[in-house]
Design brief:
By secondary structure, the protein is an alpha+beta fold. It folds into two domains: 143 residues, Nuclear Transport Factor 2, Chain: A; 127 residues, Nuclear Transport Factor 2, Chain: A, CATH 3.10.450.50. Helices cover 29% and strands 39% of the residues. Strand 6 and strand 7 form a beta hairpin. Helix 5 runs antiparallel to helix 6. The radius of gyration is 19 Å and the shape is globular. 35% of the residues are buried.
Length: 293
């Protein structure tokens, strides 16, 4: 069913093929993040982040998707950040890419160090990369101190060039429909949904747990939790070349034993496959903050 629906969504929106000669370079994103991480040590986290964001930058927090500039203002004045991209990809159009890796955080140099993993989506405005979306989870100190680096450029620079805003909106609607289909199947059966939608190289970033890579490791994690996941997409973003995209939304995890429910916000990174179906490359879950009294 997944393949039929995605193929249908693809063909009901006819496309005109224009082969672009624009090629991206993932090393630009990796170098940018390493530079920003180094700048936080010299100028502080707030000043370093200001160079990477604009008025459209968003961060997924326990309160939901919020303005990144407001988050920066809320940082402790002497916060110490350090991070390293270990997984990064860039779209064929060279205007859209994502990075992920470990980070450490201290409120100041005298407080205990916290560990976590982050996911960032970057978009290029003319010649400048800006942070579009970012999110992070805290977990125990990673056991593997030298993670495998995976930095991927597109295999080629050919893509379907869109001319109108209506076409671009239709392409965004397609990925939202794919996330909604995934959510619908999750409601019926989590195991079937993951079998149909998770990439073989899926990465899961979950609070309290170090990053998991690969379908087997991720499926083992979920099965041990004895829970049922449900989700609802809210919005999406998609590379101009179309093969990579992002969705974010709301999720709930229900315990099969007690019936207790925990709420989360999520981000998913997707990649289109040759059969026009979408596979999830990364899932990140941020626990929702309890309502204030």
């Amino acid at each position: 069913m997944k393949y039929l629906i995605n193929a249908f969504l693809f063909f009901i929106f006819p496309l005109r093929v224009v082969f672009s000669q624009t090629a991206g370079d993932v090393s630009q994103l990796v170098s940018l993040e390493n530079y920003l991480s180094a700048q936080t040590k010299q100028k502080g986290a707030g000043e370093a982040f200001k160079k990477a964001i604009d008025g459209n930058s968003r961060i997924l927090q326990p309160q939901g998707m919020t303005d990144a500039s407001e988050f920066i203002k809320s940082l402790p004045p002497h916060a110490v950040f350090s991070w390293e991209p270990v997984y990064a990809r860039i779209a064929k159009s060279g205007d859209w890419g994502f990075t992920s890796g470990p980070f450490t955080f201290q409120e100041d140099e005298n407080t205990s160090m916290k560990y976590g993993s982050y996911l960032s989506l970057w978009k290029k405005d003319k010649k400048t990369w800006k942070l579009a979306y970012t999110a992070a989870v805290f977990h125990e100190k990673p056991k593997n101190t030298e993670p495998r680096l995976v930095f991927l450029n597109p295999k080629n620079n050919k893509f379907l060039h869109q001319k109108s805003q209506s076409r671009l909106q239709q392409r965004k609607d397609i990925i939202l429909s794919s996330d909604q289909l995934y959510s619908t199947i999750l409601k019926a059966d989590n195991t079937i949904a993951r079998k149909e939608f998770l990439s073989d190289d899926i990465r899961l970033l979950f609070p309290g747990k170090g990053p998991l890579t690969g379908r087997k490791a991720v499926n083992n994690f979920w099965s041990k939790q004895e829970i049922k996941l449900s989700s609802k997409p809210v919005d999406a973003d998609r590379a101009y070349s179309g093969e990579l995209s992002m969705t974010w939304g709301e999720a709930s995890i229900t315990s099969n034993k007690t019936g207790a429910v925990k709420d989360y916000n999520y981000i998913r990174i997707w990649e289109i496959q040759p059969e026009f179906n979408w596979d999830i490359l990364i899932e990140l879950f941020v626990p929702v903050a309890p309502p204030s009294l």
